[in-house]
Amino acid sequence: RLERMRYSMGLWVVYFGTKRQYPELRHHTIILSPHYRELLDDIFNKKRLSGEFSLYLHRPTATDPSMAPPGCDCFYALVPVPNQLSGIDWSRENEPFTRRVLEFLDRRYIPGLLDNLATLRTLTPLDFETTLNSYAGAGFSFEPVFTQSAWLRPHNQSEDIPNLYFAGAGTHPGAGVPGVLSSAKIVEKLVCANVPA
Asked: Which of 70, 103, 127, 176 is deepest in the core (most CB within 10 A)?
């Protein structure tokens, strides 16, 4: 069954700190490409980096200023990209892609960003694959389509091997922190139910 599953897109993430604050930005900002359908086609079907991107911009210092030194800000930007099955060479593409994203943010949302960067770190689908052990660098394990969602994801207890349980983004109920924590709670209940009294 796992061989037939389709994997989610990859994620490219940049964490950065700035030497000044941007109080006009909220905690969460979602930026959608005007060509969203074409972008999804590039990511999922053509498996190539698009000329445009959509991104999620997170500014935790908007609600917790202690996340950065006084007078500074911290952010991360998350960009959906093709996963590692695309063959993209992130050792070659990461630097120009980082530049494109930062220039876009500087131009449209965070004026003066390039002149005020204090620190920066990126994570590519390759990092998701090698460091986080996510198959194919898929950001959310399996692609979030109906036939692979909720109860249709791999279940939390093996049907073949007794006392083998599964928790994580690739299991029921799904990806993301709430889904992963929920899968752990499900496994806890299954294990407790199977322990002799």
From this structure: 127
> Taking the alpha carbons of 122, 111, 42, 151 in that order, is the dihedral positive or negative?
positive
Q: Are 105 and 73 in contact (CB under 8 A)?
A: no
- What element of type H or E holds 8? none
Is residue 48 over pLDDT 90?
yes
- Say if 68 falls within a structural domain: yes
Tokens of 144: 């979030």
**Domain presence at residue 128:** yes
Q: How confident is the model at residue 137 (pLDDT cuts 50, 70, 90)?
A: very high
R_g over Cα of the chain: 19
Q: Which helix (H) or strand (E) holds 179?
A: helix 176-194
Count of structural domains within the chain: 2
Q: Are residues 158 and 92 in the same domain?
A: no
Domain that holds residue 182: 149-194
Cα 75 to the center of its chain, rounded Å: 14
| Full strand arrangement of the beta sheet holding 73-81 | 28-31, 55-58, 73-81, 10-18, 117-123
Task: Report how far residue 192's alpha carbon sits from residue 92's, in angstroms, rounded to the nearest whole number.
Answer: 48
